[in-house]
Structures are given as structure tokens and as C-alpha cells.
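lol ok so funny story. i was supposed to be doing the assay writeup but got distracted and ended up predicting the structure for this chain instead. priorities right. anyway since i did it might as well share w the group, maybe its usefull for someone
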Amino acid sequence: MAKPRRNIQFQHRGSNAHDGRRPSVSEVSEGPSEPGSPVKAGMNGKVEVSIEESTEPPEPTEYEKKKQTFITRTIWTFIMIAFFFVAMLSGHIYIIGIITTIQIISFKEVIAIANVPSRAKGLKFTRSLNWYFLGTAMYYLYGESVIYYFKHIVLVDKVLLPFATHHRFISFMLYTIGFVFFVGSLQKGHYRFQFTQFAWTHMALYLIVVQAHFVMNNIFEGMIWFFLPASLVITNDIFAYICGIAFGRTQLIKLSPKKTVEGFVGAWVFTVIFGIGMTNVLMRYSYFICPVDDLGANIFTGLSCTPNPVFLPQAYSLPAWTHITRTFHIAPMQFHILVFATFASLIAPFGGFFASGLKRTFKVKDFGESIPGHGGITDRMDCQFIMGFFAFMYYQSFIAVYKASVGGVMEMAIHGLSGEDQVEVVRGLAKYLVNQGVVAEGVLECLNGELGPRRR
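and the output, tada:
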């Protein structure tokens, strides 16, 4: 056993260093504790040692993350719905502005997915060419719509007439300039990538810009042809989610694992019911069923027109073999809406599946972050584009009533008649209006004086 060492002193901090002994616990407790010190005195004089709490907030759980995402998504859903209704009731021009904005942002999001590698490869003109082709496509498509629906304005304007007459040639030359510039920008070692980008840009132009063009034409034909297809897609999306949660069991497609057959079919039923009810409401208002002749019109000023026969109730009788002689009065639109609702439920969702496959190809969750809680604009419009395209084609094929219009007659006279023939048309039309009592005879005399002697 080792002998204890004597006369050895240890230095101690504090006031107790002079007596050569270790301070006791009670002595430590008597001294003032420093701020933030984990040592503090209890009521009985004993020391209580507390562990200092961490200042960092705890990591949110998975449930809290989903809850916050759901709240954000719901708030922005109501904001978008409110903004949409305000714009729609304010006038057609505001909806056209929204469609244009959606068109541009969606194109930007789709192009951005495949355009990232160009930064590393140092290709300067890839993005510039994308936007150039977008501008050229929009110039051509918007011009076609304006010339078709507003001939009576464009064809009598001295400045706009040359652009309207040669619109398609100008559009072709603009595209040719972009094509030549693309070929001139090809760089050795990047041919495959550049041609892939060229094809990708044209695919985006077709899937987004061209289809959005037909959505815009639906607005010119009447607000109902825009609002009804869009609302059917939204309704189908909502009830597919609800029915899928309620009784979904069977997976529908591998591209979207959460989609179920039960939700798919259940949403179809509810979409048809919604379509019939909403059609009954919209058919009562001329603002929705009349084609656009004044872009300044709104829900308060309204529009006036002769309603399309599809909105007027017609008599229908059941076949004789049913032995029911009762006659039903139903607007043909009620039958057409069944087709619209079926397409919105069974075909339009495949636009969303296509977008899901596209995102999986590039390993991205969303196309962008334009809308908090929803992702990008394209994530919300993937089904709307194909639905709007279908609505236009169906309307033009089965519903539209084709008749001569002021713009159509003027276009025929301008492009098909010489100047002298056009004068004769004006003279003959003026004489007819005088004979019908529409204009005074003095107008005809004044017109003959200005136009000169009649040709022989």
C-alpha cells in the first residue's frame, strides 16, 4: 500500500485558493452563478444541475409537412378560383390575357427541363432560339384568330390591311429566319444535343402554344365554350381525388400510382351530373352563349345575338316501342354536354399521365414553382390543353352554324374583285338599302356623285 504524500498543495480557482482545499458543493452554491450557467441553487441550499435546452426548433414531422402543404395548396386554390371568376366576369379580353400568360409560362417550364445542359455546354443561342420560335408561332396563330374573327376591322384599316393580306407569308419568312439561324449556330461536337433541343422546342410549341390557340378561339366563339370544358376538367380532378380516397382500391396506371379505377369511374359520374347542371345555368345568359363582337363587353354590359339553335329547347319523343307518347322539350346542348363530360373524364386525364411520364423521364417532381403548393403552371394545365383542343374541334364539327358574315363578305370582295367591281358592289348595295328604306335617297345621290359615272 503506497504511503500518502504530504505537503503537496493544489491551486484552486476562486476565493478558496488560499486555504489549499477543494471548494465544497455548498460553497459553490453560495456564489453568484453566471448567466446561462447550468448550476443553480435549490430552495434547500442544494445544487440543482439543469441541462441547457437547445435553441434550434425541432424538425417538423411528416404529418406536419403534409398538413402545411395541404393548407398552402387550399389557400392558393381559392385565390386562383377567385381571380379566374373576376377575370371572366370582367370581360373576354382579361381571359385572353390570362391564357397568353399561361401559354408563355408553360412553354418556359417545359423548355427549362431539357435546357439545363446547355449551360454546361456553352451554347449561347439555345435559349434565344427557343423564345424566337415561340414569338413566331404566337404571331402566326394570334394573327390567324384576329383576321378570322375581326375581318370587318382589320380589312378596312390602311395600316393593318397589308399585314392581314400577307400574314401567312410574313409568318413563314419569320420562321425561315429562325431556321437558318439555327443551322448557322450548329457547333461541332454538340450536333446531337442541338438537334434534340430543336425537336424539343417544336414539341413544346405543338403541345402548348398550338393547343392554347384553340382554347383562345373557344373564347371568341362564346365564353361557354371556354368555361364549361375548363370547369369539367377541374370537377373531374376534384372528384377523382375524393372517390379515390373514399373507395379506391385498384391501381389505374403505373405512371400515376395514386390514380385508381374506382376514382376514375366515380369522377366520371359526378362530372356528368355537374355538366348537366352547369349547362342549365350558363344557357340562360347571353354573355356566355354569344360570340364575341366587342372585346370591351363584360357581365354587366352583356352581349346580344341570335342564340345558336343548340341552346333552344326542342321537342323529343320516345320511340314507339316504348308505348310512351309523352313529348320532352330538351335543348340539344344537354346531349352534347354528355360527350364533353365523358371526354373530360376518360380522355383528358391522359394529358396528365403524359405530363407525369415526362417528369419521370427528367426525374423532376414538378415542372416549376409558379404556384405555391401546386408546382408549376404546366402541372395544373396538363389536362386543360387537350380538353380545350377537343372542345374547339367538336364545336366546329357538330355545333357551329356557318353563315355569311360582314367580315367574310368584305374579305371575298377585297380579295376576289377588282377595284371597279368593288365600286359596283357599293353602288348596288346602296341602291338596295334606299329601296328598302334603310337609308335616305340623298345618301345614294351623294355616293353616286363621289364615285363618278357608272361604267358601261
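The longest helix spans residues 191-221. The first strand starts at residue 39 and ends at 41.
back to the writeup now i swear
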